[in-house]
Structures
1.
Amino acid sequence: MSARPARVVWFAAAPDPAPPEPLSLVVERFERLLAAPEPIPAEDPGASLNPKQLERFAAVLAADPARWRHLVRHRQDARVYEQIFSDERVNAWLICWGDGHDTGFHDHNDSAGGIAVVAGRVREERLAVGSPTVTRELSAGECFNVPATAIHRVLNGGAQPAITIHAYSPPLTRMGAYRIGPGGALEREALSHEQELRAEALAA
Ligand SMILES: [Fe+2]
């Protein structure tokens, strides 16, 4: 994750024909998702949340803008991260994306993740070998999960700034960033969760 920015620059996106959706409508969409039955919890109450539980956890945070709305800000030069939840089982961040922002391919070490989109659009790609990457696009009011085994990449998929909420269990402490090394060999660089992922590590 990035260090706290020294200088905040409000993001000025190119004109987009579709105005941002009102937050109240996005929250209603998450509330409808949350009306579905909860995923079956692990028998051990201290166990890590599974990916479906994490997806729901991210939706719960997304449906409660009082927790995070005051932290929203955008920079053109980097994604903005703000931690909005932390306990012994889960930690969660608000992430604000500008035009072209891209994590590059990475993993979350042994943590699974749940991601809720609260504004704009994001694209997720799962790294595959011998076949094209598996891609999906998500809009405000949608959520998805990332198993701990996945190697993925997330990009701002729209013309407007995007805002997402990411929850991890066990709490995210380490990540791995992938890049192409000498001779085309795939290399993994171990990172702290406080270091920012950059697309130049491996973008395709
Ligand atoms: Fe990720």
Note: The longest strand covers residues 112-119.
2.
Amino acid sequence: MQGLVIRGPERQEGRDGQTGQRRSVLGTPERSAHGSSERASWASGARTRREGVNGARASAGELGPRGPDGSWRLADVHQAIIDCEACPRLRRYCAGIARAKRRAYRDEIYWGRPVPGFGDPRARLLLIGLAPAAHGANRTGRVFTGDGIGGSGDFLMGALHRAGFANKPTSRTPSDGLTLRDAFIAAAVRCAPPDNKPSPQEITRCLPHLDAEMNCLPEVRVVVALGKIAFDAYLQLVKGHGGHGGHGDRRGVSLRPRPLFGHGVVHHLPNGQTLIGCYHPSRQNTNTGTLTAKMMDDVFKGARACLDPPSAGLVR
Ligand code: SF4
């Protein structure tokens, strides 16, 4: 695999005889330690508020009728996310931030709602982040958007652009023309949490949204988890039972031994998906050198090599 470097204790890339998992390490970590066609439908629903029965907001799992193939439409899934009120603590926090605003954005109307995923519905690469930033996606309504110049959105989009998954290297506003190709960005939690720390209960409560979104992304082959919380949320999801049952349903996956999070560590899972760990591109990590541009490039080179092995000659 191009860009694949096997290092240290992970030197033995091999398939576990019982679980079918394979593990390897990408690159050389320097320290241990809504695009395309979907964007239009997302944007059209972004400023609406759909009331549920008796005026109650829709919550996680209330998704309306399925399509002919048994799955929900991505637009319906996103509307259910936007309407969700299942976590009172997070909803209060997001609404409070949207009212108070940061001085630099005082003339803007904050989104202040749960944030759906963004990208190419035919994506083979899925990125899972932690949660919207209080003055980033909670302000703009698009994941990894509006975190400021050189913030996490720009850092991530720069890497995706260099790897050919994004048409530009920045992510500033929902109308900035950014589109993703063959990639989709979701999050473990859809509401900005205080101190960027959702509770375990809030993560679990929000998983049905990721589940439903993944069921609308049947082509996903590689999952890049941005941080340990996203990594663990994905594992919790694929391990669990009772998914939404769409054509992308790959639940009930055996995870023994349990895959461990590490930057650049690759796990080939029995469900056919490859899970790659990546440090979260927060300023805390990028400003301290915990995560460098090269380290992130190595992750996406590895993802690209998994999707399009040189010998396969695939062109998308
Ligand atoms: S965090 Fe998720 S489950 Fe909780 S209110 Fe927000 S969208 Fe709903």
Note: Residues 1-19, 28-62, 245-249 have pLDDT under 50 and may be disordered.
